[in-house]
Design brief:
Elements (H helix, E strand, L loop, with lengths): L1 H25 L27 H4 L41 E3 L5 E8 L5 E8 L4 E4 L4 E4 L7 E2 L9 E3 L4 E7 L11 E3 L2 E4 L22 E3 L4 E2 L6 H4 L3
Parallel strand pairs: 1-4, 6-12
Antiparallel strand pairs: 2-3, 3-8, 4-7, 5-10, 8-12, 9-11
Length: 239
């Protein structure tokens, strides 16, 4: 009987100690396990209408966000008006690889007698290609099966090579016969071959051209001469 009472007193003491510890933890002296207020939880979410940080996503109006708003920002640094660093144009016309020789494959050639000066013919060469082409020296003319080469008019030689951009033309004047009749071996030619010279004299510059002549042909004699290539029609017919 005595031992039962001792066990009851011990159990009662443990229960009281537990209640005292619980009261100390919540500061109220009692603990309500069913209706306690839930503990607030911290959150990092921004309100839906909170302004965004311009520097966060790079889309705001902060500095560096839109280069087109800066002075010159909308212009590509490589855009210098078509000029390259050497002062030339960016079309590559100064590049030797972009230049070719003018010849029968990339030009249209015509030959027609002119009323003034008398006994003269004008040869016109038009660049029909897509690249700049160069005319060197003077055209090499051959009527029919002629076995000799007409002499050039030396005083017509220019200081530079005649160059033609696509669509441009150059000229050469031909003295067909002496006006005073001093020439000999006169004959009428019905076919004309125009040869082109290379980068050195008397070398081939490529395919020849065969322009049409008047149906009655063209009269020439031993006075036959041709000018160097000229940029101007007037210059070509001034010799």
């Amino acid at each position: 009987m005595r031992s039962s009472r001792l066990r009851l007193l011990a159990a009662t003491g443990i229960t009281l100690a537990t209640l005292a510890l619980t009261a100390c933890e919540d500061g109220t002296g009692t603990q309500d396990e069913g209706t306690g207020t839930p503990t607030a939880t911290a959150t990092t979410e921004k309100p839906a209408d909170a302004p965004s940080d311009p520097s966060a996503d790079g889309t705001g109006s902060g500095s560096g966000s839109d280069k087109s708003s800066e002075p010159g920002g909308g212009k590509d640094k490589g855009d210098d008006g078509g000029k390259d660093k050497t002062g030339g144009t960016s079309d590559g016309s100064d590049d030797p690889q972009s230049r070719v020789a003018c010849n029968g494959s990339n030009t249209a050639v015509t030959a027609r007698p002119v009323p003034r000066p008398v006994n003269h013919m004008l040869i016109t060469v038009k660049n029909t290609g897509s690249k700049l082409c160069d005319l060197t020296y003077y055209p090499v003319l051959r009527f029919d099966e002629m076995q000799w080469v007409p002499r050039p008019v030396e005083e017509s030689q220019g200081q530079a090579v005649v160059s033609l951009a696509p669509g441009e033309s150059a000229y050469a004047g031909v003295l067909l016969s002496a006006a005073d009749g001093s020439g000999d071996g006169g004959t009428t030619g019905h076919k004309l071959t125009v040869g082109f010279q290379g980068s050195t004299p008397n070398t081939s510059g490529g395919p020849s051209a065969v322009p049409s002549l008047p149906a009655k042909g063209v009269y020439y004699d031993s006075s036959l001469k041709v000018t160097y290539w000229q940029q101007s029609m007037d210059d070509a017919l001034s010799y």
